[in-house]
Amino acid sequence: MLTTIIYRSHIIKNAPFESFTEMVEAAKVKNEQADVTGILLFNGTHFFQMIEGPEKSVLEIYQRICQDKRHYNIVELLCDYAPARRFGKTGMELFDLREYAPEEVLQAVLDKGTTKYQLFYNDRALKFLRTFVEATEKENYFEIPPADSWVFIADNKGAHTQAEVPDNAVDCSFAFQPMVDPFAQKILSTEALLRSPGGDSPESYFAGLSGNALYEADLKSKKVAFAMASALKLGDQSVSVNLFPMTLVMVPDAVNFLLREIQINGLVPEQVTIEFTESEVISRIDEFTGAVRQLKSAGISVAIDHFGAGFGGLLLLAQFQPDRIKINRELIKDVHKSGPRQAIIQAIIKCCASLEIAISAVGVEKAEEWMWLEAAGITQFQGNLFASACLSGIAPVAWPERKADL
Ligand code: C2E
Ligand code: MN
Ligand code: MN
């Protein structure tokens, strides 16, 4: 199947442009052997390349391109299928946009094309090409430093606080994971993540439970969460706990139970956030928003977890506005390399800015993911890059330091 990949990248400092003309000559021959064709545009700083051909060859060539040390911040913009090649004349052609007057440059590029209809119609690939040539998306290019320009240094000052599981414990425990502002080197809050007594995942804790028993176990477990948070001496720090949205709807008097447990453990409602997974909420939205109103009027904050993962994400924001949304690992993963993820996250950021909703990114594992998200405007992070979830305790946070500053 004829496959198209488009990416954009940044040329490294002091790379002689001539070395690229040589490279393109070599690539041309190899590509033709693999039945791959395309065009490479250069604007003085950025490359834009369209590669077309059989899927396997295109993917192989793209992988090789990603390993080339002469460019960085490679962002895949499109991977799609098409009935015909747009640029099928040669294995690869390098086109220097600087050699043409602005009003001619797009036509000059299109003149290289082989597409039968030299019109845009609805062809996304050609629209990407036009946008690059016209440089109208440039404010969305975030140039991030290489991952190894940072080292992460564990903060052993407040290290490894441990809490005993309280005697009155039901049959569960909790792991704790901080949410941090890495540049400010501040812990913003700590999330309590449900575990079985042996430390197994929430899924395995809930396995075998259904209906009311599931929701009751979810609610009751928060007694342990607040007791352990209190034993960890979080002071006036914020504490987050997770709940199924249906737990608030199905268990009678759930909000009062939470308020009582918060008070018994010496916490105040204003320091507590309840996180809900959005995909669950849809069916009984009126009852759910009623329960949220009760939480809010008692001083508890509300967050939507895994935002964007379910089908109701955006609609939900029209129905009620949480204090915070948390963007999950599925969207964060390799965001620095993915045009679609970047576009989605930028849209979420813009939407939440208009609604004054705080945003945090969860599941951040790579320095590049973190740096891209900082460049996009996110300042609150949770993830193994900084601190992993720790059973009945809090792991020391690894703060980033710029190597040049050490
Ligand atoms: P969540 O609220 O989004 O919690 C974050 C999950 O991501 C945690 O998994 C955490 O261990 C994991 N995580 C954190 N940093 C990283 C990272 O850098 N990489 C990766 N790959 N994972 C990371 P966990 O503890 O297994 O929890 C899974 C989900 O279970 C939670 O997602 C939450 O939705 C749910 N959950 C947790 N506790 C409770 C609870 O008390 N009640 C209910 N109803 N659900 C809970
Ligand atoms: Mn959560
Ligand atoms: Mn999760």
Automatic annotation (TrEMBL):
Highest taxon in the source lineage = Bacteria
Residue stretches making up the BLUF domain: 2-93
What sequence ranges are listed for the domain EAL? Answer: 154-403
Indicate what this protein is called per its UniProt record.
Diguanylate phosphodiesterase
GO molecular-function annotation terms?
blue light photoreceptor activity; cyclic-guanylate-specific phosphodiesterase activity; FAD binding
Q: Which organism is it from?
A: Buttiauxella izardii
Q: A Pfam family for this UniProt protein?
A: EAL
> What is the residue range of the signal peptide feature?
none
